[in-house]
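hey so i finally got around to running the thing on that chain from the lab meeting. sorry it took forever, my laptop kept dying and i had to restart like 3 times. anyway pasting the input first so we r on the same page abt which one it is
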Amino acid sequence: MNRGRHFRLLNRACAVFWLAAVTLIIVTYRAHFLSRLYNNLGYILLNGEKASDSFASRRSELFFDRALTISPVQASAWRGKGIVLDAQGWDLRALKAFQQSNETPEYFTQWGHLAFKAQKYSEALTWYDRALTLQPATPITWFFLGRTYEVLLDGARALSSYETALELAKQGDDMTLDVSTVYYHQGMVNQWLIQPSDLEAAIKAYQTAICLDDFATPLEKADSYTRLAQIWQWWERDVNQQITWLEIATSTDPTYPTSHVLLGYAYYLNGSDVSVAEREIQKALVINPSYASAYWHLGEIYYREGLIERAIAMYEYALDLDPNHWMAQQRVTELRVSP
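ok and heres what got predicted. didnt touch it at all, straight out
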């Protein structure tokens, strides 16, 4: 009698257990389903409308909030909420939401890359700044921040960002940063962006980049040699050294037209026949038929040779390709008014 009663109690306990387990599974699955549903609706609204539209943003945020009420650890919903808050200008709230998504600061950096590639440079700056707010000792992000400032022609901030990247790289073991590339861009900013140009600093940066030989691309290495030779040409220094650098540049990246143009001009300055210079400069025009600098340098060679009409024709070709080429315009004006 007692054994039968115990058996019935055991069966009831098992039934209750399985009923509770099944109920829990159903409730959990339903909660997961609803959370994912609200999350997906939030993204549908976000992608279908402009995030900056306040009504669309509020509706999207509402769905993300509902998803997070059901599942507070859902990274995707936190990410969507962060995007909405960012579009609405709630920087600190957006930052906290992104932190909850567990995909920062790398996530911010990737968004910065996407914005940079889309030429949305102000947006890229915002993402890089946020990545650095969370993890300031990241050399590669400082470098990308510098690149963005360089494209925006803000030389001072670009140099500051590059310097920070290099200092952090010296302190750590960041193998993702191509240090020569940073020095190369430092040289370009010092040569072209800041006013007045700091050519001594540019030379030092190019030479350091070449010495370390840790470039991201062959073009950067070739251009480091090319820019050294270019400054030497401006200063009318050792033409043989110019030729050495430019021959290294053309062998490093034969597809870079600037190296061929400056090499042809250096050959001429060193006493070579005009035809030798022409052949080298023509290599640049094969690579890029619309390269105004090639025609400018041909014009300079013909001008020095006293072939004025040919020189004017080259300068005018350069102006057709680049109406803002002030040196070509100046030469044409000078030669047209000369007796």
